[in-house]
Amino acid sequence: MPQAWYQLLFSCEHASNRIPAKHRAVAEDAGRVLGTHRGHDPGTLELGRRLARKFRAPLFVGKWSRLLIELNRSRHHPRLWSEFSRQLAGSEKQSLIDDYYLPYRDAVESEIRRLESSGGPVLHVSLHSFTPVLDGVVRNADLGLLYDPARAAERDLCGRWQVALRELAPGLGVRRNYPYRGVADGFTTHLRRRFTANEYLGIELELNQRFVGARGWRDLQRVIADSLARLLKHHAR
Ligand SMILES: [Zn+2]
Predict the structure, then answer these.
(1) pLDDT for the residue numbered 234
(2) DSSP per-residue codes, 81-136
(3) Residue 231: what pLDDT?
(4) What spacing in Å lies between the alpha carbon of 28 and ligand 1's midpoint?
(5) Full-prediction pTM beyond 0.90?
(6) Chunked in runs of 10, what are the mean pLDDT values of the chain (237 residues)?
(7) CA of 156 to the centre of ligand 1 (A)
(8) 128: CA distance to ligand 1 center in Å?
C-alpha cells in the first residue's frame, strides 16, 4: 500500500558535544572524550540543516552532548546516563529529564501528531553517524538505514532508498539495519509505540564519519538529499 505523500521531519539527537556551564564537572570529567564520536555525531547537524532546507521540513536538534543525557535512549535505559553523568545527584538528573529530555522528545512527538493530522503519514528521518572503526573492527558500510522489519512501509521505503542511493552513487556501501538494528532501544522505537504504522515511519540514517569534512562530503550530502527526493517522487506517482 504505497502512500501518496509523506510529511517529512528530521532530527539530530546527537548533534552537539556541548555541556551547559552548570554541569561543568561532567565536562571536566569527560575531558577529551567530549571531542570524540562518543560526545556527539559529527556531520549530522550539517546534513540535517541541508535536508530540512531542501524539503522545507522541520528539524529538531539536541542541544547538549549525549554524555550528559542520552536523548536516543528510553527513560529507564541504563545508558540514559554516561559514566560521566551517572554520579549526578538525583535532583540534578530529574531536572535534566524535566527541563531537557522530556521537552525535546515531547516536542518531536507533538510535531509528528500535528503533521499527521494535517496531511497524512509522517516520515521521520533521525540522523546519526558512526565511527569507521569500533573496538578494532572496521565497520563495513558507508551508510546504514535502520527500520523495523515488521513494519512493511518502513521496510519497503528503506529498500527503495537503498536502490536510489546505489543508482546515484554506485560505489556507495549502503546496508540495512547496520551497524545497529532499527528495533533496538531508541527514539524511533519509542515513537513507533506512540503512532501506528499508518501514521508514522521512523527511519534512522547512519552515516560513516570517515566522510565528514573529507573530500566528497558535500557530494555525499547531495546524494542523500537527491535520493530521498527521488523516493518521494516515486511515492507520489
Ligand atoms: Zn547518534
Answers:
(1) 55
(2) S-TTTTTS-HHHHHHHIIIIIHHHHHHHHHHHHHHHHHHS-EEEEEEEEE-SEETT
(3) 87
(4) 22
(5) yes
(6) 72 97 95 94 98 96 98 95 96 97 98 94 97 86 97 96 96 93 94 97 97 95 96 61
(7) 23
(8) 4
Side by side, which strands form the sheet with 200-208?
59-61, 7-12, 122-130, 200-208, 143-146, 174-176
Q: Please, which residues have CB less than 5 A from ligand 1, an ion? A: 14, 41, 128
Are the CB atoms for 17 and 40 separated by under 8 Å?
yes
In whole angstroms, give the CA distance from residue 75 to residue 12.
18
pLDDT attached to residue 2: 43
User: What would the grid cell of residue 38 be?
Assistant: 562518543
- For ligand 1, the distance from its centroid to the CA atom of residue 236, given in whole angstroms, is 30
- Give the H/E segment covering residue 55: helix 44-55
Give the distance (Å) from ligand 1 centre to CA of residue 82: 14
Q: How far is CA 82 from the centre of its chain?
A: 19
Domain spans of the chain?
A: 7-236
CATH of the domain spanning 7-236: 3.40.630.40
